Every structure is written in C-alpha cells, then in structure tokens.
Amino acid sequence: MSDRTIGYIVGSISSTSINRRLAKALERLAPAGTTLVEIPIKDLPFYSPDHDADYPAVATEFKNAIDEVDGVIIVTPEYSRSIPGVLKNALDWAARPWGQGSFDGKPTAVIGTSQGGIATAAAQQHLT
Ligand SMILES: Cc1cc2nc3c(=O)[nH]c(=O)nc-3n(C[C@H](O)[C@H](O)[C@H](O)COP(=O)(O)O)c2cc1C
Asked: Domain named NADPH-dependent FMN reductase-like: which ranges (predicted)?
C-alpha cells in the first residue's frame, strides 16, 4: 500500500490537553506507511464572512494543510455537551469561502476523550 499522510486537528488549546495526549498516542500507533501530522488551529482569529474575499495568511495555511493530507482525524474534547468553540471556529474557516469547503470529499474521522461518563459522545455526534 502506498504511503499516506493523515492530518489531525486537536480541538483543545489547553497546555495540559488530554486530547493532545491522545493524538500523540495515535501518532505513535500509526501503521507503517502512515504518517500523522498536526494541523494547528490555535493561531486562527475568529472567523467572520468579512474575511471571505481576502483570507488572512494563517487561515489560508490552515486550509492548505487540509488540502495536502489524505485524510483528517479530529480529536475533540467535549465542552458543554458540544465541541469547544476553538474547534468550531476552525471548522468555520475550513468551510468557507462558499464553494471551497476544505472537507468536501476529504475522508475524516472523529475521536475524543474526556473524564465525563459519556466521554465525548455528544461532541463527536455534533461533528458527524
Ligand atoms: C468549559 C468546559 C465544559 C466542559 N464540558 C464537558 C462536557 O460537556 N462533557 C464532558 O465529558 N466533559 C466536559 N468538560 C471536561 C473536559 O472533558 C475536560 O476538561 C477535558 O480534559 C478537556 O479536554 P482537554 O484536556 O483535551 O482540553 C468541560 C470542560 C470545560 C473547561
């Protein structure tokens, strides 16, 4: 099988993120021929349609990073029974400008962990 690169997005910007630790474990467990690389979101400003005609460089880099990988894994915490705002903000950048959605046709998987009883079931459901 040919080599492939999978990008991962961690939906937490916490310095002690357990979801980042989960992502690092996935990096280590990746099978031969598969490389996992992080697609960072922490420097993205708040999305606004005002940016659609002229995306800032950091957002263009984010979209290019998604374009360049064969698939994406979203590693998400659950905040208030949904996904964290920082992740939603990143996904909104990816979805625009209209007609240029970065996830269109992109194989994407979702995983997450929390200390809560239902883990990240609600957050993951919101991503599907
Ligand atoms: C604002 C906020 C809301 C949270 N809401 C939930 C929740 O709805 N369900 C849950 O299982 N954990 C919830 N948690 C706990 C998180 O699962 C826990 O903080 C986890 O460590 C976050 O992931 P991270 O360490 O990767 O940032 C919440 C935490 C915060 C800070």
From this structure: 6-127
